[in-house]
Amino acid sequence: MYSFKNDYSEGAHPQILNALIETNMVQEEGYGEDHYSLQAAELLKEKMGRSDVAIHFLTGGTQTNLTAISAFLRPHHAAIAAITGHINVHETGAIEATGHKVLTVNSGKDGKLTPAGIQEVLDAHPDEHMVKPKLVYISDTTENGAVYTKNEVEQLSTFCKENYLYFYMDGARLGSALTSSANDLDLSDLPNLVDVFYVGGTKNGALLGEALVICNDALKEDFRFYMKQKGAMLAKGRLTGIQFLELFRDNLFFDLAAHANAMATKISEGIDAAGYGFLTPPVSNQIFPILPNTLLEELHQQFNFFDWEKVDDEHTAVRLVTSWATKEEAVDAFVESLKKKVTE
Amino acid sequence: MYSFKNDYSEGAHPQILNALIETNMVQEEGYGEDHYSLQAAELLKEKMGRSDVAIHFLTGGTQTNLTAISAFLRPHHAAIAAITGHINVHETGAIEATGHKVLTVNSGKDGKLTPAGIQEVLDAHPDEHMVKPKLVYISDTTENGAVYTKNEVEQLSTFCKENYLYFYMDGARLGSALTSSANDLDLSDLPNLVDVFYVGGTKNGALLGEALVICNDALKEDFRFYMKQKGAMLAKGRLTGIQFLELFRDNLFFDLAAHANAMATKISEGIDAAGYGFLTPPVSNQIFPILPNTLLEELHQQFNFFDWEKVDDEHTAVRLVTSWATKEEAVDAFVESLKKKVTE
Amino acid sequence: MYSFKNDYSEGAHPQILNALIETNMVQEEGYGEDHYSLQAAELLKEKMGRSDVAIHFLTGGTQTNLTAISAFLRPHHAAIAAITGHINVHETGAIEATGHKVLTVNSGKDGKLTPAGIQEVLDAHPDEHMVKPKLVYISDTTENGAVYTKNEVEQLSTFCKENYLYFYMDGARLGSALTSSANDLDLSDLPNLVDVFYVGGTKNGALLGEALVICNDALKEDFRFYMKQKGAMLAKGRLTGIQFLELFRDNLFFDLAAHANAMATKISEGIDAAGYGFLTPPVSNQIFPILPNTLLEELHQQFNFFDWEKVDDEHTAVRLVTSWATKEEAVDAFVESLKKKVTE
Amino acid sequence: MYSFKNDYSEGAHPQILNALIETNMVQEEGYGEDHYSLQAAELLKEKMGRSDVAIHFLTGGTQTNLTAISAFLRPHHAAIAAITGHINVHETGAIEATGHKVLTVNSGKDGKLTPAGIQEVLDAHPDEHMVKPKLVYISDTTENGAVYTKNEVEQLSTFCKENYLYFYMDGARLGSALTSSANDLDLSDLPNLVDVFYVGGTKNGALLGEALVICNDALKEDFRFYMKQKGAMLAKGRLTGIQFLELFRDNLFFDLAAHANAMATKISEGIDAAGYGFLTPPVSNQIFPILPNTLLEELHQQFNFFDWEKVDDEHTAVRLVTSWATKEEAVDAFVESLKKKVTE
């Protein structure tokens, strides 16, 4: 059974493991003050063309979101997210556990936020009997596999500035977004557009690790205190430092994401050729084809993947996820199975 | 410059890295439901002779403490710790950030709690105008390098049961404790004596990882919810599972700790032979010799370690920490330097 | 300008003020342990026919909701409320500030919850990646002036029991509910149907004060700790005790609510006679007539009340609130103005 | 049995009750936007000679402390208090429940903080592994009945400014402090010396009510949001507004406090004349005489008061509290009983 369930089914890219081995016995400072972490931060700044951002390495997405968002907000502030946003649904109330309400926008199939959607939330929160919306949370790619265009992000950025809202981008799958055919953003655009974002390592070839990039000066102060308080500062911070150093030393981060996207595209093309459609356009490493239940029964016998939502009595949208580790043979086998079934 | 600053200066024991490499491309479930994590939990239960404990893998000490303690306490409950306890001093108010007061006992040089000390706290909190003490936190080894005897832990255990207090042991350095010459506890004793404890991996040869062991049935329910909410559930949970599997497959966990202790003992003996004393008896991988400032000036030029506290105008207690990775040559060099200096 | 903006525009019923004066110089214990509070609690228990409930007096609705709900839930638990529920919208994120997510049900114009609506929330929260729904919050009357029937509450009660959910009723306007023509619940029914509810004093003739009634044994323990911790325990607890004693000594609580309802009914009848309809059926002391904007312009010159929502380009639903203090002359004047305008 | 247990045993000064009656049927805005609250705030500003402070009325001390302190601090910030400070001991962990550690100073019998004591706390918190001390909390009078001199407050003020610490004064018994013989502070001095303080009404003649005065511009923003979120905003805000208007319309606030102090002084003089001493100098409405246990046995049969602490096997320090309501006959009777007993 080959799995297309998610992009964290395997370990790490071999080059990363190799770097861990090579550096293993070097003695370093703890808690993120090691040379690897410092170098990795410098390297990321170079890649972004911005020496003034602050970069911190954390271990996972939920941890990064809760640590950062709770650090930035005052007690009466709320975050705004798509109703499908990861912080709203899949983090066991992590943001609320730090005291903050997540206000939601019904964002449609693609899971994207728009200025109009945010404006509705602002209009509904005029005074002190309600929370004060203060941070806009988006994910790129979204939880539904969509990718923001530069224009969309620029519009949101302008809107946030005009309304004194912090603009936060969850980049758990930023690699897939930036290497998507639907993308026209560059990593170096982000510091000019958002207040904070993170570059996801866990879902793009690292054992674990997310690089939080704080672009807004007002949000930089004392961030290491928040990390320590939330249990987000590894004693062996080298572990995340070394990995990001490897991911960004050359082009590994983008190469791995491009591979994931290419594999997803290959599956999408097969599905398209077989005459099936998608819940949302397949542009990233998460695709959501709508397939007949009879076909799915067969496919589930060979492959692991999630049923996403019932479309009608005979069709279901499923989620297929590829990654840096996805084998082309498995992709070919999947498409082959599909074709065979269809032509039967 | 060789470092005796802490026990997390290097990466991981090579056997652990090797296991990561060997398992790297196996596809597994995420979030701790992989086979390695499940096996590691079973293995730990066997080593403890208790199939009924619940075991969860987290990434670090502060994270483990805050996730577990906040899961167990109701809003008005407080934890009791030695004034030197890690949760009281060195976790940036992580417990308070989850809403709970940490009540402290002046515990003396060794950092140990006693029933008498806890009783004083209970006596001072008689009614609803004050928090209700509910959990007793100890560390073994303590933050000052001391090791609890079985009798001491039994007394605390009985006291806690009699007073309806949860008994929690922070085992960040449990390996060093259990292999100390001052120890008469066995790993398998702990589930009978405490309600919860954790087995520290980070400071004993793992890249990261702590194994939380919940022994009290009343505290087991829904624990994975708390982990997820606090950002303590790794997508690639295999990372901690594989490491603990390796640490406990044979005797690696204890071998590594024994090495750390042996190295500390060797330094201690050298210091003792040179005629110097200690702040607390040197029984674990953290030792606190009291040395003349003139000697320290020289040693600091060759070795990295922390000055701990001023003893008098001419003497300072320092902290030397050894680990699984400590090289005997470095230990010998340290003792040699000391001797040379003394005989000058 | 006479105000129909809310039911807390005046002070307290004169009988209550009188009781404050008469008891003023009696020395009493503080923090709710005075004789008046103890007697008031006993009296309420008698009125409910239940000696086993626990009763605590707090100062306002938001305080009562946040203190009680946060006391009952564990960190990963969430409350379920109508999207219009007071805890979701109008308490500045008070529940989230204690760490808990509020999950919402789109509940329609009347603001009532149904088992079907709650079931949808349960279905969407199957595992530890999401919060665990644990408490169902309803308001009677609802924020939209609707009143639950006994059958509706029984159905919710059964559903909650079957699903291990706490059932919590916000009774800020319970007086109006229990004396509504649409009501067939008795105060004494409530302890058999809900786990917790409160009897609102602030909006029914008291200066301030809500009587929280904890019916579920499992939720009674240590409640005074939570009150003190949230700043909800008045040093002069007599202030709420005396008021509830007065409200329930005879029938004052119900008489005052009946007056408020009667005044609302009189306005409703006038509006109905004038040919206008309502957003929701007018059954309590909050009514929501839909009136032409031209008429509203005139009425706003004589009366204070809130525009509630735009219905179409020419009509707006407004909220009119009556209370124990509403003067019949004002009601008559309002109806007269309306009539005059209509016949013009 | 006459009670000297506390200063909240009776209701309110008759003039205050009278004002409640006279204004009772006037319709007003809710939530502190009524004319009485607005006028009371203006009046207080006049009395302080500062039009730029922000004033909010809350219901009790714990509520005021937790709402204000949690509003001002960021998640990693801690408050510094005397070990005897109300927020440290007697508020059921209210500050910690909002996420913040309370760091303590061993402050001696009088319960006063000094710059030296605070400096020690600062020195012990140098980096991000520990909380960041940010707010200094003092009470005037202290929990032990002591009164700060102007010079002491000035020194603390300067120290706080130099160290970027907010300076917060709990004025639950500020009336007694400002009218004490040991006091040389004027109400109008406070806005120049502290960042925030509150003027206690509950313990000085009001039914309930504390006036929070925010002097530091940086702390004023959005404060009403915090009040609402913590359940600290009364629907009938007029209740606190009317009372403070009455207390400060003329000199009632100071007259009542002066009476309380005078009664305490009369008792103190009687105790002194009888040859007994005090735990701390008797300068406010809380005095702590040290009396023989045999004498206390007799006194306890006639009067209610708290035993405070055992001094030796035969002597106990007790706490006697007087108030605006204390009757001179009761004071005389107490002194008489004492004298009689002594001369026996």
UniProtKB/TrEMBL annotation, chains A, B, C, D:
SUPFAM superfamilies in alphabetical order: PLP-dependent transferases
Protein keywords: Lyase, Pyridoxal phosphate
Listed cofactors: pyridoxal 5'-phosphate
Signal peptide (residue range): none
PANTHER family registered for this protein in UniProt: L-THREONINE ALDOLASE-RELATED (PTHR48097), LOW SPECIFICITY L-THREONINE ALDOLASE (PTHR48097:SF5)
Family: Belongs to the threonine aldolase family.
Protein name in UniProt: Amino acid lyase
